[in-house]
Amino acid sequence: MGDRLASMRLGAESLTVVLEVGGLDTLGRDKLEIAVRGALHGLGDLPPLRIAQMAERGETVAPKKPRIIAVGSGKGGVGKSTVSANIAVALARMGVKVGLVDADIYGPSQPRLMASEGERPTAKDKTLNPVPTRYGVPMLSMGHLAEPGQAIAWRGPMAGNALAQLIEADWGDVDTLVVDLPPGTGDVQLTMIQRFKPAGAVIVSTPQDLALMDATRAIGLFDKAGVPVIGMVENMAGYACPHCGEVSDPFGQGGAEAAAKTMGYDFLGRIPLTLNIRAASDAGQPPAAGDDDAGAPFVAIAGKVADWLKANADAEPVTA
């Protein structure tokens, strides 16, 4: 690693490391960067890390990849896919050039949420072209490649390769990918972190203790890999009876916000449990695409994610 270190500069707001990558292919460059990030992460409290790659004269370095915002939960059934879709739609409405990847290889749901069921991506030179959506968010999902209702029974390496195909598609001018991760901390999540270096992660949980325990495990995975946690979202937080208006808390109240405060992370907001959100999602109409009350919590959360992206521009990868 030492002979590849061209320079290192520690500033007030960032640590910049320049690597000499001449003669290395893309995989070799990725491995080198992962090794450097791992070594520096073990040194303790450092400012945000920015890695630049320098090739020999006459050699080209691949262009920038889209920065990745990973949306994880550690536990299924907390509404992570709904949050992912609506963050992507809201960011697009804010002018961000955003794409959406459904990385839940075994249980893809984004085609239903984004009204793109039945669509099939095209390909050129074995590279997929994302499926356009009516919401201005190009997307890819295993649901676009498999037959409807087909059970996908793949071992870890096959799922990891499938994820790579989705992320390494021809995203054009997209500069930010929202990646809806499957629940847990398994092979797909590890592939994401090791190969594609997310700029940051959003953690979704319901208020109940069991979901928060699993969310904490997901946070631990991102922490160990040096992926910044943008903040936590509390979903299904309170239910207002459509008949009497009384608000109840079937999953508890304030748990994710309290957990975020305890762990030192930002709390991005809470989303209520409402029939409007459920019905709109099932109909392929993300609430964030509209201007009514159902979409407001998603828009507010996406606004905080957008602010984080602006404040942490150095978190995006410099090269492939």
TrEMBL record:
A GO molecular function term, named singly, is: ATP hydrolysis activity
Q: Give GO terms for biological process.
A: iron-sulfur cluster assembly
Cited SUPFAM superfamilies: P-loop containing nucleoside triphosphate hydrolases
The source's superkingdom equals Bacteria
The family database entries (InterPro entries) matched by this protein are listed as: Mrp/NBP35_ATP-bd, NUBPL-like, P-loop_NTPase, YlxH/NBP35
* The keyword Nucleus belongs to this UniProt entry's keyword annotation: no
Binding, ATP: G74, K75, G76, G77, V78, G79, K80, S81
The similarity annotation says: Belongs to the Mrp/NBP35 ATP-binding proteins family.
Report the protein's function: Binds and transfers iron-sulfur (Fe-S) clusters to target apoproteins. Can hydrolyze ATP.
Describe the protein's quaternary organization and the partners it interacts with: Homodimer.
What is the official name of this protein in its record?
A: Iron-sulfur cluster carrier protein
Origin organism of this chain? Croceicoccus naphthovorans
List the top taxonomic levels of the source: Bacteria, Pseudomonadati, Pseudomonadota, Alphaproteobacteria, Sphingomonadales
